[in-house]
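Predict the holo structure. Ligand: FE2/S2 (inorganic) cluster.
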Amino acid sequence: MSEMTIDTAGAEPVAGRDAMSSAALTRLCSLSDVSEDLPYRAEVGDMAWAVFQAGDMYYVIADQCTHGPGLMSDGYLDGCDLECPFHQGRFDIRTGVPTSPPCEVPMAVWKPIVRDDAIYIDASSPLRV
Ligand code: FES
């Protein structure tokens, strides 16, 4: 089984959550489900995540804007800035930190884990900045 983790600059796992067993991982999608032109909305249970690709990097962010009803999977990625489609507020997709108003509350982001041509996360461990 091949595994590759993707670093998310400026973010660290929540303390005490570094140990990551396979059982703790949530499969979000296949690598072929997401492209630079087309983000992917992953729904598992009552949660939804937006998966983005930029070059050989993948990013996972909650698919609900902290400012309102905007779905981030419908957003526009410009470098590391993810623009919400509803009021055009922006977040740094690496950290979830707001970068442009009206957004003020950080988004939850997760460290993507690429394993066997699929993207997984430890859903219980969003990254903190
Ligand atoms: S709902 Fe996202 S910026 Fe307002």
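Residues 1-19 have pLDDT under 50 and may be disordered. The chain has no helices and twelve strands.
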